[in-house]
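Cross-check.
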Amino acid sequence: MVLLERDFLTVSDEGDKVWMTLDTSKEAVREVAAEMARIRPGLTMDGKGWEAFLSYYLEGNNPALLKDLVFASEGDLCRAWYKKISGFTKVKGVSLGNYILTLFGESREKGLYCVIRDEGDCIDWK
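Predicted model, tokenized:
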């Protein structure tokens, strides 16, 4: 069951897990990734690149959303899930999705572009 859906991001309830899927092949994500690569030449923002960025960003800015989040990215998809242990898990999944959507809506002077510019060397790009 879909809990949150936008052009490039979906949060869904799939059995015993709540999944977040960020599709890096979508135009909006590719535009952001291109700007990130201009700031940090050579950066590849496929599923694993977004996984590395989100892990780092959440650890410093919203560790509650990172807690119990398991990444399973592959190719153009950045995927992560929470094991469903209560009704709150769905709320947490939607909160993660909304948090990521907010990152995409922020200006160049804060959020993800600032992190790439100022802290990109600290991120474990795998």
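The chain has a mean pLDDT of 93. The chain has one domain: 2-122. Passed to J.P. for a second look.
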